Amino acid sequence: MSSAFALLPPVAAVAVHLLKGVVHRDQHEAVWQDLLTFQGPVREYLDVIGLQVFLDESEGYAFLRQRPEEEEGEEELYEVRRIIKALVDAEWLSDLDEKLTEYKAHADGTA
Which of 25, 55, 71, 89 has CB 3.0 to 4.6 Å from 60, enough for a Cys bridge? Predict the structure, then answer.
């Protein structure tokens, strides 16, 4: 590892190497060891910016790939469904209130 990377915490150093490209076990032994040691924190760190770590220990390489779109959209889709349901419920309640008001007016008029 170069002297500039020696000053970084291991998770950040591994993340920087992965952002630069493929990390090979044979070419970057110290980085590879840190990746294996801090695999969980590295994954969490990079997940924040929408990247997944692909790690093949048997072949000895790791790289980053973008998180699939369907995972990103699930939360947004849930929010859209929740908003639509709230609007439908509000409309239904409004209709019910209107019918109840009509019923009361009709009942008061005949009594």
Answer: 25
Residue in the structure block whose two tokens are 């790690």? 55
- Rounded to whole angstroms, the Cα distance separating 25 from 6 reads 18
- Cα atoms in the 13 Å half-sphere on the side-chain side of 57: 6
Look at the block and give the residue holding tokens 């500039």: 4
Q: Which tokens go with 47?
A: 């997940």
The closest alpha carbon to 52, from 94, 19, 78, 13, belongs to: 19
Both tokens assigned to 79 = 């929010």
* Tokens of residue 48, six digits: 């924040």
pLDDT tens string 60-87: 999 999 877 655 556 677 677 777 777 7
DSSP state of 2: -
Instruction: Determine the straight-line distance between the first and last CA of the chain, rounded to whole angstroms.
Output: 91
